[in-house]
Amino acid sequence: MDYNFHYLLMANQSIFHRGVFSKLKDTGLTLGQPKVLDYLKDNDGASQKEIAIGCHVEPASLTVILNGMEDKGLIERKNINGNRRTIHVYMTQKGKNMQKEIDEAFSFMEDIAFKNISLEQKNNFLEVFEKIYTNLLDKKGDL
Q1: Who's near 65: CB < 8 A, 6+ residues apart?
Q2: By Cβ atoms counted within 10 A, which residue in 48, 57, 77, 82 is the most buried?
């Protein structure tokens, strides 16, 4: 069967996503929360606006995601230096522990995805895939 790019992209994302959530089924995480914790791993204390941009999520959707995460004790939101307009988001220890589980789930699925693929092929694929991402990101405002 001949598959085109958009079909493979959507199908792979769906299968990968299902696999990640299968590994995280006992955590109580909901859609969007693993992505935010993964972002905060390298950007703890980011503003809500930065998280929305970094995770490619609409600000209103992010607010709902963060509310759920705060209710679960995974994050805390703080105003810095009395600036009430910018809220920064920090992982709690519980959030950091959960993020480690997320890393394990992502690694598990990546191992499956790249099974029987050489390191050179993997690196070439990731290089091209990053270029595709950059191309799409550059055109995001036009779409």
Answers
A1: 30, 31, 32, 33, 36, 57
A2: 57
Average pLDDT estimate for 53-65: 94
Q: Assign residue 104 the CATH number of its domain.
A: 1.10.10.10
User: pLDDT tens digits for 62-81?
Assistant: 999 999 999 999 999 998 87
Q: What is the pLDDT of residue 141?
A: 66
**Token pair 């390298």 is at which residue?**
42
Distance, CA of 140 to CA of 142 (rounded, Å)? 5
- Please answer whether residues 113 and 16 qualify as being in contact, where contact means their C-beta atoms are separated by less than 8 angstroms: yes
Please count the structural domains in the chain.
1
Please indicate whether residue 74 or residue 137 has the higher confidence score (pLDDT).
74
